[in-house]
Amino acid sequence: MSNRLIDMQHITKSFDGQTVLDDFNLYIRENEFLTLLGPSGCGKTTILRILGGFEKPDKGRVIFDGKDITDLAANKRQLNTVFQKYALFSHMTIAENIAFGLKIRKKSEEYIQDKIRYALKLVNLEGFEKRMPDSLSGGQQQRIAIARAIVNEPKVLLLDEPLGALDLKMRQDMQYELIRLKNELGITFIYVTHDQEEALTMSDTIVVMNQGYIQQIGTPEDIYNEPQNAFVADFIGDSNILGGIMIQDKLVEILGMRFDCVDSGFGSNNPVDVVIRPEDVKLFSIPDNEGPGSAEYEDAAARAAKLNPGRLEGVVTHLIFKGVHYEMTVEAAGFEWLVHSTRMFPVGGRVFMTMDPFNIQIMNKPESDDEKALEFETI
Amino acid sequence: MKKQKHVLLSGPYLFWTAAFIIIPLLMIVYYGLTDTSGAFTLSNIAQMGTPERLKALWLSLLLSLIATGICLVMAYPLALILTGTKVNATGFIVTIFIIPMWMNSLLRILAWQTLLERNGVINVALRFLHLPELRIINTPYAIALGMIYDFLPFMLLPIYNALEKIDQNVINAAYDLGANRFQTFWKVIFPLTVPGMISGITMVFVPALTTFVISDFLGGSKVLLIGNVIERQFTQVGDWNVGSGMSLVLMVFILISMAVMQHYDKSGGEQVVL
Amino acid sequence: MKKFLSRLYLAFIFILLYAPIAVLIIFSFNNSKTRAKWGGWTLKWYFAMFRDQAIMSALRNTLTIAVLSALISTLLGLTAAISLNAMKKNRRTVVLSALNIPMLNAEIVTGISLMLLFIAAGQLLSHMGLGVEFGFWTVLIGHITFNLPYTVLSILPKLRQINISTYEAALDLGASRFLAFRKVILPDIMPGVLSGFLLAFTLSLDDFVITHFVKGPGFDTLSTKIYTEVRKGIKPEMYALSTLIFASVLLLLLILNHLPGSEKKA
User: Taking the mean position of all CA atoms in its chain, how far away is CA A218?
Assistant: First the structure.
């Protein structure tokens, strides 16, 4: 890979005897929007701090643009950080904040003024030069923090949960803003968040982490549609995660019922984990007081069978209207299924449920000993 | 209804503030600007003009400025060191600086007499080490030392609080933007502690300027400060008009330093309390 | 190297702070009556001080004034903080500035001003056949006055942190105003109230300057007693008493700090 900009090799880091990262390896390409995604304490912020130069790894190397920067001080690195709570200099005006890095580099006054104007235009805050940080809203302060970082023309911008302190609407606006900035600047963004929606919206590549280990690396589509293990499936979006048995290629048994699926290569009669997204569960209403043999019952069963030979019979136990869709729980074969549907199925109503074979995601069960990377908390 | 309740509650302390804070201050103004018959005069203030009193005022200003300066220079690195120690520094600092205050303050200053005397503890130790003796007791140097000792905590605490309040990420941001340790300190950390320093300066300067106990104990009644002059006007001479007149002069300096504090300290002095 | 230097500096400050205290404690065990020479170890001053009427009366006065002034200034400070909290910002700033004068002003000026007030009040009242006697009451008033800003500033920030909804929720659930205050607000601001009280107690215990001006002849606290004794020579009993007070406060602090649930300190 020629365009590896950053290469983190065998990074190990512990705090007070607690290992946060253990033999961590990751490379980041030029112009990539890479997101480190994971629950708090998964080590994602530590990685960012190691890249920024605020922590030194106990073991391992950080290669940047072909050079080893492991021992290089933070102020000598060609990366700039946008901190969680903005970390603006409260005693300086907005212009002084933005000019800080440029003045340190002894740029000419003219150049600095140009850069301030350019940066403020870029973050849509023209005319804010003389204001003090305290007089700005959270979202505006965040934009200034970004402006302050990018005027230094870093090759990489590190963003540590930059939207964490903003409200939902502002967060969504800023997501579009960040994508636009990334495209206009043409530099690498490394973004840390625990918010899966943020990660899915903005990233080129998502690195899902848990307890210091990488769980999966992939595009947002990969991560969402093909989670490699139950942790990823559970962390990204809502999922139904069940234990199953792979009978043979393209046939899986879930809760005692065999379903067609599209995955193969899991052996035969092997235990696996099965992930089914709530929007992929299809429901077919069974009219009241109709049993097997009645025309309407058989009709519903037939419609379900068109999708998949396998089906379960269940009862709707909860129903919430969510705007675009209804969110329901359906109890079937002793399991509470989460189901999203644009059609409403009343609580207490009986249903058949099944899935398109394509939407049944089969995953290996984690084997605790030799597959460390798949360690995860009990779900 | 609720507003009414609070107005009732505010009665007692508003009365107290008026009766025991505002009116007494106005009495000083009244006494300072009138003679014994109650007629308006500026002669009480002019009384400050005698060479002896001017000398006392000048010495007070000089010593309190020096003591304030030394306190600042001593307290700042101390505050930096204490902020750097991660081990529950707040508990440590409170303990180490509050404990001495539980010993009577007059006795603590008196103890310096014992330490600084010709045959005091310090000189015995110096002689033992064959070092030159320290002969500063009953001189302005001893008074300055007493001021520094007594008021150092008042300088330390606000600076420490200001340093503690700085978000580590703000410091990291400075490094991140290319500043070295030196630049980070002078461009970011130091300016952010200015309000703390201002508040520390006022809290040392005012009591140092107006003390009469420290000069009494360590100046051996040979060195007079403006505090001693005023105190004697009230307790020995018994001329309240002249005493008040000189107090007014003193208050001008206090007001200047308070105005400076108000100007810089945006938090309204609330961090003064531990 | 850097670490060594900062250790050295800390040690220097520590010696500066504690040398006088060590001297005082040592002299409380000095068998000789003067500070000038060391006469061997003794505990006699610790027994002698209890027989000294003047010292015991000064101690009684000091403690009574400290407890009463701390108590009254805390109560007064509590009412002040509650009503200040409800005030509009501009009004609050004005009242707070007035309230803070004794804290920012020179003690000597506060002392003198109170002295002048009491004299004037005495003259005014003498027309009615009454008088103001300098002593216990004037000292108490003086101490409450300089304690007040400290108690207010201990309580007010705690009060401002409180979410008013919890108080309203208590009212909504049927509590009376008094009950809601006692059960909801008071527990939250208690750390501030306590630290205000302790601060006031400490300040009052140690005050000299203001007491000096408003005490009048014949009434003494420990501080004023020490001040008058300095010229004739301090009685060693005074060192013993101060050491004893110092030690008991230290012990009290240690106990308080090791009680469970006492993490929240002033």
Answer: 10
As for how many domains chain C has, the answer is: 2
Residue corresponding to tokens 């009862």: A315
Residues of A in contact with B191 (CB under 8 A): 91
Structural domains of chain B, ranges and CATH numbers in brackets: 50-272 (1.10.3720.10)
Is residue B270 within 8 A of residue C196, CB to CB? The reply is no
Residues C90 and C209 in one domain: yes
pLDDT tens per residue across span A60-69: 999 998 899 9
Which of B81, B96, B101 minimises the CB distance to C6?
A: B81
Report all structural domains of chain A as residue ranges with CATH numbers, in order of start: 4-225 (3.40.50.300), 230-364 (2.40.50.100)
- At residue B42, what is the residue type? L
Helix (H) or strand (E) segment spanning residue A23: strand A18-29
Cβ pairs bridging A and B (under 8 Å)? 65
CA distance A290 to C128: 104
Positions of chain A with pLDDT lower than 70, given as ranges:
1-2, 366-379
Element (H, E) at A99: helix A94-104
Instruction: Say whether residue A373 is in contact with chain B using an 8 A CB cutoff.
Output: no
* Closest residue of chain B to C101, computed from CA coordinates: B21
At A285, which helix (H) or strand (E)? strand A281-286
Q: Is A180 in a helix, a strand, or coil?
A: helix
Same domain, yes or no: C133 and C204: yes
Residue C60 resides in a domain: yes
Comparing B220 with A120, the larger pLDDT belongs to A120
Residues C22 and C148 in one domain: no
In a mutational test of the B interface, the residue from C6, C99, C113, C265 whose CB has the highest number of chain B CBs within 10 Å is C113
- CA Rg value for chain B: 23
CA count, 13 A, side-chain hemisphere, B23: 16
Choose, out of C2, C92, C115, C116, the residue to mutate when testing the contact with B (most B CBs < 10 Å): C116
Query: Taking CB atoms and an 8 Å cutoff, what residues of chain C touch B232?
Result: none
The helices-and-strands tally (H runs, E runs) of chain B is: 15, 0
- Residue A347, SS3? coil
Question: Residue B118 in 3-state DSSP?
Answer: coil
Host domain of residue C32: 1-42
Give which of B176, B192, B264, B265 to mutate to test A binding, by max A Cβ within 10 Å: B176
Measured between alpha carbons, how far is A194 from C231 in angstroms, rounded to an integer? 72
Pick B169's closest partner by Cβ from A83, A100, A101: A83
pLDDT-above-90 percentage for chain C? 29
Looking at the fold, whether C77 and C11 belong to one and the same domain comes out as no
Give the residue among B101, B273, B82 at the shortest CA–CA distance from C253.
Answer: B101
pLDDT tens profile C206-245: 899 999 999 988 899 989 988 888 877 778 888 888 888 8
In this structure, which amino acid lies at residue B15?
F
The verdict on C26 and C63 lying in the same domain is no
ipTM: 0.85
Q: What is the dihedral of CA B62, B65, B67, B71, to 10 degrees?
A: -170
* CA–CA gap between residue C142 and residue A193 (Å, rounded): 58
List Cβ neighbours of B109 (8 Å cut-off, separation of 6 or more): B146, B149, B150, B213, B214, B217, B218, C20
The shortest CB-CB distance from B172 to any of A54, A90, A148 is to A54
Q: Quick one: which of B221, B228, B223, B219 has its CA closest to B246?
A: B228
pLDDT given for residue B134 in this prediction: 85
Flag if B14 and C95 touch (Cβ within 8 Å): yes
User: Partners for B (CB, 8 Å, 3+ pairs)?
Assistant: A, C
Lowest mean pLDDT among A301-315, B54-68, C39-53: C39-53
